[in-house]
Amino acid sequence: MYSKGPDTVVIMSPEHAEYLRKEKFTQHAIRVSRILLLLLLFALWEAAAAFKWIDPFIMSQPSRILRTILTLSKDGSIFLHTGVTVYETVLGFISGTVLGTLIAIVLWWSDFTARVLDPYLVVLNALPKTALGPVILVWAGGTTGSIIIMALLISVVVTILNVYLSFRTCDEDKIKLLKTFGATRLQILRKVILPFSIPSIISVLKINVGLSLVGVIVGEFLVSRAGLGYLIIYGGQVFKMDLVMTSVLILSVVAAFMYLSVSWIERKLLKMR
Questions:
Q1: pTM for this structure?
Q2: In this structure, are 82 and 117 located in the same domain?
Q3: DSSP run (H or E) holding 2
Q4: How many domains does the chain have?
Q5: How do residues 43-69 score in pLDDT, each as one tens digit?
């Protein structure tokens, strides 16, 4: 590499250029293969239903799902139900992650508090939170708030345990170095602990995407009159399996979109780090 004025010119060896070309080709091939695999799965699904290898009434088929989507799009109900689920999931996801991270900071700050709460966190993590659904409904009422609380409860304990574990595994030598220079506990948290834990926090975000969706769908099963979970339970009750499979497919798209959003945030945070 050499510089000429404000511009920097990079000299690249033929071997490195060939490596980059192959890497770019591999990434392109992976993307194309993913799309082709998805198309193949839909084609097999359509063929299996058409030739009665599977029962199209129970398993539906892509063409019937497409007709259902078009029907729901005409009156705008598909956008209403999808928007409700996304809104509840995002609120539960953000609140669970933020609250869990704050509690993890408290546990790191006070070793006494961490040792007191440790067995309770283990029990809460093992407890199936969906079993608390009826209790939450009585406590919070059959409202959107109860669904968000359900999503929060499912994700918050996982966040606490994973983020706190990351805090504890931070390099002790770096912490001791800052202490020798008179750094306060808050400065150690800001300068060492949080930057070190960014990858773990991102991993927690990816986990919480799925957990929050589970909490929201369970809540919508129980109380909601709108949302994809409501469509699934309603479709099952009236034996409209096309509606059920359509809702499940839209849920998959929502989960994929949220996961890609977290991945985009991950790339930005790692560059800053």
A1: 0.78
A2: yes
A3: strand 2-4
A4: 2
A5: 998 898 888 888 888 888 888 888 888
Residues 204-254: tens digit of each pLDDT: 888 888 888 888 888 888 777 778 888 888 888 888 888 888 888 998 888
Instruction: Give yes or no: residues 8 and 140 share one domain.
Output: no
196 and 117 share one domain: yes
| Distance, CA of 238 to chain centre | 31
Residues 109 and 192 in one domain: yes
Structure tokens at 249: 């497919």
Look up the domain containing 15 and give its range.
Answer: 2-54
Q: What is the DSSP string of 115-182?
A: HHHHHHHHHHHHS-GGGGHHHHHHHH-SSHHHHHHHHHHHHHHHHHHHHHHHHHTS-HHHHHHHHHTT
Separation CA 213–CA 97 (nearest Å) = 14
Residues 40 and 85 in one domain: no
Torsion of CA 70, 75, 78, 82, to 10 degrees: 150
**By C-alpha distance, which of 227, 213, 84 is closest to 150?**
213
